[in-house]
Design brief:
- It is a single chain.
- With 316 residues, the protein is an alpha/beta fold.
- 22% of the residues lie in helices and 21% in strands.
- It has helices at 25-29, 108-116, 133-147, 169-179, 184-187, 230-235, 268-280, 283-286, 309-312, and strands spanning 4-6, 37-39, 44-45, 62-63, 76-82, 91-97, 120-125, 157-167, 193-199, 214-219, 244-249, 302-307.
- It has a ten-stranded mixed β-sheet with strand order 1-2-5-7-6-8-9-10-11-12, with helices on both faces. Strands 3-4 form a two-stranded antiparallel ribbon.
- Helix 2 (108-116) links the parallel strand 6 (91-97) and strand 7 (120-125).
- Helix 3 packs across helix 4 (169-179).
- The radius of gyration is 18 Å and the shape is globular.
């Protein structure tokens, strides 16, 4: 498994040293964490038409060279993780599926941020990235790496803290897989999904049986997954088994999350705060989601922030 290590600028903000009373998500969770990052596939500037986003043609992107953005296989799993993982004990893992026809490298900045905060990120992709099988593939590959004595992830994956995530079609696949999250324990009793994250999820996903805390993020300028569409018609209303949230980022498009510059990456700070809440029980991040005075509705960059009755009662 080829590995490249990327340095993290220690001057960037992390939740560990930010002002806990700051109200702005982007201030608290907009930068990198304290860990250097290792990844199993190098990223380069996307070639040709892949260099800029399809929606507004202004977002610079990175690629890992999977077809059609290179000669690499359009099917596989790649990993991001803390470079010092051998000193961290067991680490929570995010199984992420990209959007339809997307190269995994499109999300490189966001994945590196998550890994710098102490998460393993398993990126499961098959070009279409639509069905729940993607999450199964990612989780199965993680188990193989955990059991492989030659892997840097050997014995490091905390399967009691698995998070399912994705964007666009991949966001839909994460919601579909979340419906059957308890069945992962039939594969291994240690598997436990603690949360789900859907960024602009596709319309194929229903949510009526999702038993895990879930956050759906949509964007006000999204022409692919329009705010006020199926997320509001049936996906968020169907989340009644566990704490659930929906938030709309202002002035953001469907592809801002693919920006190679983290600071211009749209909803990355809210996504990180959610992962830290459900994956690590972070007390600063959790203030945005829990308690009667939860802080997310006060965020200046978000509108139409809602949570269900289960979330009203939720305590970490």
């Amino acid at each position: 498994m080829a590995i490249s290590v990327l340095m993290v600028d220690a001057a960037l903000v992390s939740a560990a040293n930010a002002d806990p009373d700051a109200r702005d998500l982007d201030t608290l969770f907009g930068g990198m964490g304290s860990h250097q990052v290792a990844q199993t596939a190098a990223t380069v500037a996307c070639p040709g038409p892949g260099a800029l986003s399809g929606e507004n043609m202004v977002v610079p992107r990175r690629c890992q060279g999977t077809f059609p953005f290179g000669s690499g296989s359009p099917v596989g799993v790649q990993y991001y993780y803390p470079a010092d993982i051998d000193r961290l004990g067991k680490v929570p893992a995010v199984v992420f599926t990209p959007g339809i026809l997307a190269d995994p490298g499109f999300y490189d900045a966001m994945f590196r941020q998550w890994a710098s905060y102490g998460f393993i990120v398993a990126v499961s992709f098959d070009y279409l990235n639509t069905l729940s099988e993607m999450q199964f593939a990612g989780l199965g590959a993680l188990k193989e790496r955990d059991l492989d004595p030659g892997s840097p992830l050997a014995g490091r994956v905390d399967f009691r803290r698995i998070l399912l995530a994705g964007q666009s079609a991949g966001g839909g696949s994460a919601l579909l897989a979340s419906n059957i999250a308890p069945r992962f324990r039939a594969l291994d009793p240690a598997f436990r999904v603690v949360g789900s994250l859907a960024l602009e999820p596709g319309p194929l996903a229903v949510t009526n049986f999702v038993p895990t805390p879930t956050l759906i993020i949509q964007n006000a300028r999204d022409s692919v997954v329009p705010a006020g569409g199926w997320v509001d018609w049936y996906q968020y209303p169907g989340l009644h088994e566990a704490p659930a949230y929906v938030a709309t980022r202002k002035a953001v498009t469907h592809t801002d999350v693919e920006n190679a510059l983290l600071a211009l990456n749209g909803e990355h700070s809210l996504a990180l705060a959610w992962l830290l809440t459900v994956g690590m029980g972070d007390p600063i991040a959790s203030r945005f989601f829990t308690g009667p005075d939860w802080k997310l509705p006060d965020e200046p960059n978000y509108a139409d922030v809602r949570r269900n009755s289960k979330a009203d009662e939720w305590q970490l």
